Amino acid sequence: MKRYLLLEDGTTYEGTGYGYEGETNGEIVFTTSMSGYLETITDPSYAGEILIFAFPEIANYPLNLEHMESSKVQVAGIITKDAHSIYSGGESGTGFNEFLKQNMVPAIDGIDTRSLVEKIRESGAIKGYIKNKNEFPDKFEDTMDLDLVSMVSIKKYKYYNSGHKKQILFIDVGTKNSLIKRLSETASLHIVPYNYDFFNIKFHYDAIFLPNGPGNPGHSSLEPLRAFIREKSSSMPVMGVCLGNQLIALSMGGKTEKMKYGHRGINHAVLIGNRVYITSHNHGYAVNGDSLKGTGMEICGTDINDGTVEMIKHRELPVFSVQFHPEAYPGPYDSTWFFNDIKTTLGEKI
Ligand SMILES: NC(=O)CC[C@H](N)C(=O)O
């Protein structure tokens, strides 16, 4: 079945439809990852985004549902050059095509993804639709204006008792399962929704953790959360990853900005001190380094290619966070020391 990718700049790409048969829209972003397709598409940070796989061969190994980073596919749509298991069943008994149908996510195959990526690198982030008809919409919605965190955050408090004495207040702004798993190696987790009644918490906790999540970190729906972080950062450790990093920067008085086309992939070189770490990335926003002046926060890691701020920490307080993904999934384990830093910050032995 023919399907069309329609871009805000007036261009149309024709391909073969697979997955769900409805239409979808979102910001078109690309990942350069060559593996980890299931982990990637189930990462809640991708809500509101249509994902291009720049690497041509995708889904050329079976789906293993144990690798899902959340309970469902979170990308708004998928663009591939050659998605292999479209028509075949994997070890789980489900083919990629069928899996995307069940998750109601439309996809389009046979697209020259590399030229599409070049276009986005030239023009910057672009909005688009995947449709069954070559008919342009009246308007291209900016999905980054939506309250995406409310769509992916858990709805109710959940206690994750990992047997550890230390307690972390884990604010779910759209977390990946692997982050919960990693932190549970250090502490038990009070997992709360992004809009929890923060100023009336009755249970004890030793630190706050903010994970990854979708959309604009400056969204107004996140202001009560930022106010809470602002207050708590002077009295207890606050740590974060990706959206968490951006929320910490904003709470401490810094600024974030939208990047031209973001970083998404698993081989981004980041310089921290005098060492380079190969890291996993998925972000379209970044902390503005200059805006940290006078906030007490300092830049301690930057992307080698474009200088993007990739790690920040407070000069005196135990407040630190990374823009990259130390939990990997998918990606290299170069930066898992981040979880050891959290352990020692909480007074635990490595
Ligand atoms: N992975 C994330 O947490 C992404 C953070 C934010 N939504 C961004 O695009 O920059």
TrEMBL record:
Chain positions covered by the region annotation CPSase: 1-166
Annotated catalytic residues: 242, 325, 327
BP GO terms, sorted: 'de novo' pyrimidine nucleobase biosynthetic process; 'de novo' UMP biosynthetic process; glutamine metabolic process; L-arginine biosynthetic process
Pathway(s) where this gene product acts: Pyrimidine metabolism; UMP biosynthesis via de novo pathway; (S)-dihydroorotate from bicarbonate: step 1/3; Amino-acid biosynthesis; L-arginine biosynthesis; carbamoyl phosphate from bicarbonate: step 1/1
Domain Carbamoyl-phosphate synthase small subunit N-terminal intervals: 1-131
Gene Ontology MF terms: ATP binding; carbamoyl-phosphate synthase (glutamine-hydrolyzing) activity; glutaminase activity
Chain positions recorded as L-glutamine binding sites: 45, 213, 215, 243, 246, 282, 284-285
Gene3D superfamilies the UniProt entry points to: 3.40.50.880, Carbamoyl-phosphate synthase small subunit, N-terminal domain (3.50.30.20)
Root EC class: ligase
Entries under InterPro entries matching the protein: Anth_synth/Amidotransfase, CarbamoylP_synth_ssu, CarbamoylP_synth_ssu_N, CarbP_synth_ssu_N_sf, Class_I_gatase-like, CPSase_GATase1, GATASE
Documented EC number(s): 6.3.5.5
Catalyzed reactions per annotation: hydrogencarbonate + L-glutamine + 2 ATP + H2O = carbamoyl phosphate + L-glutamate + 2 ADP + phosphate + 2 H(+); L-glutamine + H2O = L-glutamate + NH4(+)
Alphabetized SUPFAM superfamilies for the sequence: Carbamoyl phosphate synthetase, small subunit N-terminal domain, Class I glutamine amidotransferase-like
Keywords: Amino-acid biosynthesis, Arginine biosynthesis, ATP-binding, Glutamine amidotransferase, Ligase, Nucleotide-binding, Pyrimidine biosynthesis
Family to which this protein belongs: Belongs to the CarA family.
Stored PANTHER family: CARBAMOYL-PHOSPHATE SYNTHASE SMALL CHAIN, MULTIFUNCTIONAL TRYPTOPHAN BIOSYNTHESIS PROTEIN-RELATED
Subunit structure, interactors included: Composed of two chains; the small (or glutamine) chain promotes the hydrolysis of glutamine to ammonia, which is used by the large (or ammonia) chain to synthesize carbamoyl phosphate. Tetramer of heterodimers (alpha,beta)4.
Function: Small subunit of the glutamine-dependent carbamoyl phosphate synthetase (CPSase). CPSase catalyzes the formation of carbamoyl phosphate from the ammonia moiety of glutamine, carbonate, and phosphate donated by ATP, constituting the first step of 2 biosynthetic pathways, one leading to arginine and/or urea and the other to pyrimidine nucleotides. The small subunit (glutamine amidotransferase) binds and cleaves glutamine to supply the large subunit with the substrate ammonia.
Name of the protein: Carbamoyl phosphate synthase small chain
Species the sequence originates in: Ferroplasma acidarmanus Fer1
